[in-house]
Every structure is written in C-alpha cells, then in structure tokens.
Amino acid sequence: MYCQGNVGLLNEQKIVAIVGSRNCSEYGRKYANIFASELAKRGICVISGMAIGIDTSAHCGAMHEIGKTLRYS
User: Fold this and answer.
1) Smallest Cα–Cα separation from 48: which of 61, 65, 38?
2) Which structural domains are found in the chain, ordered by start?
3) Where would you find the membrane-spanning parts of this chain (predicted)?
4) Is 71 helix (H, G, I), strand (E, B) or coil?
5) What's the pLDDT tens digit per position in 10-46?
6) Which of 33, 39, 68, 73 is most buried, judging by how many CB atoms fall within 10 Å of its CB?
7) CA-to-CA distance for 70 and 11, rounded, in angstroms?
C-alpha cells in the first residue's frame, strides 16, 4: 500500500474511506464533495485514492474545510 500525506492520520479514531467511479455523474461528484466536506467539519479524516472522479471530489471536499485527508493506492 502506498500512502501520501501525514501517515500518522492512520491512527485517528475517526476515518472514512470514500471511493467510487472514475466515470461518475456530476451528481456523484457533487455529493462526494459535499459528504467529504461535512465529514471534515466534524473532524473525520477522509481517505481516498486520487483517481479522477469520486476520489478527487472527496479530497477536494475535505480540503475545502481544511480537513484531514490521505491518499492511498
């Protein structure tokens, strides 16, 4: 497993992985972003891949709230 970011976040008690399609709808992109943003507001670390689509939208949502996020592959 490859991880990019502060790997110490893997020890967090509140972590949610968000993954999905690269070929997603605009609706899927929008709600992955909103969901990750809401998780980040609550101090929950978001982990995802960084593939184009749902993964990237999740990271963007978490980062919009200055939340904790990790990339894995």
Assistant:
1) 61
2) 3-72 (3.40.50.450)
3) none
4) strand
5) 787 899 999 999 999 999 999 999 999 999 999 999 9
6) 39
7) 12
